[in-house]
Each structure stands twice: as C-alpha cells, then as structure tokens.
Amino acid sequence: MKIKCPKCKEDAILAMDFSNVKCGSCDLDMSYGEYIKFVAHNVATYSDILGDYTGSTEGHTAGSLDEWD
Ligand SMILES: [Zn+2]
C-alpha cells in the first residue's frame, strides 16, 4: 500500500506483508521496523518542538506513559 515517504514526502510503497518500505522517488529502502523507528524519531522531534503547546492544553493526565522508553 502507499504510505508517505518519511524522507522526501512522496509516495512510498509498504509491502503487503509489512516487511519492507520502498520509495521510488528517493533511495529509501528499509524494513518496516526501521521505518517505524525513522518516523517515531521524526514525531519525537515534532513533539519536542510542540512540547510547550501540547503541555499547556493536555495537562499531565498521561504522565505515566512518558516512562515507556
Ligand atoms: Zn522518498
């Protein structure tokens, strides 16, 4: 299925068995596990940037979830 390439934002292809992610627009070619880490890293970066904003609106009701790492 098509997913958004985390590198170039074009269409990447996720294998039907979730084993591999490939992008035809750049050289992205990684396992799904690596893809998840790649995306998670980017999301974590966004979370840092938006940390103050979300913190002021969401409160700290999910504090225990912060310790999953
Ligand atoms: Zn790409």
What general outline do the C-alpha atoms trace? globular
Instruction: List low-confidence stretches.
Output: none
Distinct helical segment count: 1
Rg on CA atoms, Å:
15 Å
Largest sheet: 4 strands, antiparallel
Structural class estimated from helices and strands: alpha+beta
Strand order of the largest sheet: 1-2-3-4
Can you give the mean pLDDT? Answer: 80
Query: How many structurally independent domains?
Result: 1
The portion of residues assigned to helices is 25-40%
- Taking the alpha carbons of the first and last residues, their distance comes to 30 Å
Percent of residues in β-strands: 15-25%
**Bound compounds, please?**
zinc ion
Number of strands: 4
Order of helices and strands: EEEEH
Overview of this protein structure:
The protein has one domain (2-57). Helices cover 39% and strands 20% of the residues. The chain is built from one helix and four strands. Strand 2 (11-14) and strand 3 (20-23) form a beta hairpin. The longest helix is centred in the middle third of the chain and has 27 residues, at 32-58. The relative contact order is 0.12. Zinc ion binds next to loops.
SSE layout and pairing:
Elements: E1 2-4, E2 11-14, E3 20-23, E4 29-31, H1 32-58
Antiparallel strand pairs: 1-2, 2-3, 3-4
This protein binds zinc ion.
Please tag this protein with its features.
single chain; 69 residues; alpha+beta; four-stranded antiparallel beta sheet; 1 helix; binds zinc ion
